[in-house]
Specification:
Elements lengths: L6 E7 L6 H15 L6 E6 L2 E5 L3 E8 L3 H4 L11 E9 L7 H15 L5 E6 L8 H6 L15 H10 L18 H51 L5 H20 L1 H5 L5
Helix pairs in contact: 1-3, 6-7
């Protein structure tokens, strides 16, 4: 039997209003849609329970009473709630849904619910620890005390990066900063391809040069032999030298055509 994975979060409410459940369902639907999981069905199981289904998750929103054992665990700095708003997030395919992403999605749902209801504390997951609303919202705050912008404009981000001086060393990049603009990448890729093609053409030219030299080698050898023969011999032996030159030319021609190599196995 497959193990059921469920992520649960709770909000302690000061009062139990009739519009709390509808406001919670609307916040959950908006969160799912913003993160690419639009709700496909919304069903009301009872007057205090609603169930939503999307492509990857089942979400249950329930408004319930506060158990005595839970209220006794609260610290003195947290006001005792009169009701609990409980969110349960269950992956449809537990083996393919990332646990951390599911937990962060639940935290975002709780964060968006806080402005809609009068909450006294927040419980994220089954940790047994209750956080005040300020403590929970402080997790979503940047280091300078200002809320971190979740979806910064592309133009503003590019201008800010261009105005900042380049830092030496390996700086930690986030989001779109990790990727080079498409125009710059295309120019670098085109220049790299041109260098590769030029290197291939140069190597091809070096490989074809010896073939042309081989075709002309027998002619240069013939001219060298004729020059040496005329220089060393006298007029009386000119006829013998001319015959020798003709035989040498014929032999070189046959050798260049490959006939000498083919005839060697036939010789005794």
């Amino acid at each position: 039997m497959a193990e059921t994975t469920q992520h649960t979060g709770r909000l302690g409410l000061e009062s139990r209003d009739t519009g709390t459940l509808s406001a919670a369902v609307a916040a959950v639907v908006d969160t799912l849609e913003d993160f690419g999981h639009p709700a496909e069905t919304i069903a009301a199981r009872a007057e205090n329970t609603a169930r939503l289904q999307c492509d990857h998750y089942h979400v249950t929103v329930r408004l319930r009473r506060v158990p005595l054992r839970r209220s006794s665990k609260l610290t003195s700095s947290i006001m005792q709630p009169s009701a609990l708003l409980e969110l349960s997030l269950s992956p449809v395919f537990p083996g393919y849904c990332d646990q951390e992403i599911s937990e962060l999605l639940l935290a975002e749902m709780l964060r968006r619910l806080l402005p809609e209801v009068d909450a006294t504390y927040v419980e994220w997951l089954e940790t047994g620890t209750a956080l005040t609303c300020e403590q929970f919202l402080g997790v979503f705050t940047a280091g300078n005390g200002q809320p971190e912008q979740r979806n910064p404009p592309i133009v503003g981000t590019a201008n800010a990066l261009a105005s900042q001086p380049r830092q030496t060393g390996r700086a930690s990049l986030r989001g779109r900063e990790r990727f080079t603009p498409v125009e710059q990448t295309a120019l670098e890729l085109e220049a790299h391809c041109d260098r590769v093609f030029q290197a291939a053409n140069r190597s091809r030219g070096r490989k074809t040069a010896p073939a042309g030299f081989a075709r002309l080698s027998w002619g240069s050898q013939l001219r060298a032999s004729a020059l040496a023969a005329v220089t060393l011999a006298g007029t009386r032996r000119l006829r013998f030298i001319s015959h020798l030159l003709l035989l040498t030319a014929l032999f070189l021609f046959l050798e260049s055509a490959g006939m000498v190599q083919a005839a060697r196995p036939l010789l005794p």
